[in-house]
Amino acid sequence: MALRSGLFDSTEIIESASGYPRGNRAENAEFFLLYFSRFVGNGVYASPSDGFLVKAGDGLNVKIMPGDAFINGYFAFCTEEQIISLFSGVEETVYRIVLRMNRILGCISLEVLDDNIALTRNENIYEL
Description:
By secondary structure, the protein is mostly beta strands. It has one helix spanning about 30-35, and strands at about 15, 20-25, 45, 55, 60-65, 65-70, 75-80, 80-85, 95-100, 105-115, 125. Strand 1 (about 15) and strand 2 form a beta hairpin.
């Protein structure tokens, strides 16, 4: 179908799955991804102002502040401070903390990258 539109209420229930009704105008996640990506850009939301801010912790731990983010139509929100432990090598190391959208696993996660590893940005993995 070349033309699609939405978001309209269903006029009839065509099936029920796990106790949830599915209407005749139901849409899948791809529809919503396309819709939201038209007006929301990738990034961390400005409020709170320290959303996903990385702060020094004790020893080799860093604290990631709560926040909200949007990546290619998917969203993530974190309501509690996260602690990530970094690994120490013999040499001084620079790490990057990224938000990784993974379509294969169906999630957005916090990940640690070595500074010399490029961000992955393809159809299935997109890192901020």
